Amino acid sequence: LKIALPADQEILGVTGAGIKEWKIDAATPGRKTLVILPEKPLRDDVALKLQLEGLVAKLPAEVKVPEIEVIGAAQANGEVVVNAESQLDVTPKTLVSAARTQAGGNAGVGSFRILRQPYQLTLDVAEAKPQVEVNSLTRLNVKRDVATLTSELNYQVRRVGIFETRVGLPA
């Protein structure tokens, strides 16, 4: 079994029943080939789990979903599920030979169907901005020689935390 991978991806693990060993062959520039050697000839259905890791540039960044190309496959399709930390905003940017199938939840960006290889899926990644809503109650107490203002501010902060608030006051 041979799988072409981007050269900038670190292989964290290859697991599956009947794997004797795996090795990496340098292929074309920018790509490398993962060669998986089974314990015995493969028949019927075979399942493998491949774990990769790559660096994300300083945010905001464009992140390319690593293209995994199964060499010699008559047909190769599948699904990519994208999740992200709640402190990040991730939006799909480029979809080539891929289609969005569903939106994710709070941390989930969504699922994408890979229609054929080669495919391209890129994402825009940025720090999330806090969503702040403020509800206020202001009271003005007027006396003969002074007016006193009292405001109660109730904050609802979502997505990411805030470390300070600023309130504009009259001079």
Detailed description of the structure:
With 171 residues, this protein is mostly beta strands. It contains no helices and 14 strands. The strands form 5 sheets. A 4-stranded antiparallel β-sheet has the order 3-4-1-7, with no helix packed on it. Strand 3 and strand 4 form a beta hairpin. The chain is rod-shaped and about 95 Å long. The mean pLDDT is 89.
Topology:
Blueprint: E1 2-6, E2 10-15, E3 19-26, E4 31-38, E5 49-53, E6 61-64, E7 69-70, E8 78-83, E9 88-96, E10 98-103, E11 108-114, E12 120-127, E13 131-142, E14 147-158
Antiparallel strand pairs: 1-4, 1-7, 2-5, 3-4, 6-12, 8-11, 9-12, 10-11, 13-14
Q: Approximately what portion of the residues adopt beta-strand conformation?
A: over 45%
Assembly form of the protein: single chain
Low-confidence stretches: none
Give, in spatial order, the strands making up the sheet with the most strands: 3-4-1-7
What is the number of E strands?
14
Terminal CA distance: 74 Å
Helix coverage percent? under 10%
Question: Helices and strands: which structural class?
Answer: mainly beta
The biggest beta sheet, please? 4 strands, antiparallel
Quickly count the helices. Answer: 0
Average pLDDT reading: 89
Taking all Cα atoms into account, the compactness measure Rg is 26 Å
SSE series: EEEEEEEEEEEEEE
Shape category: rod-shaped
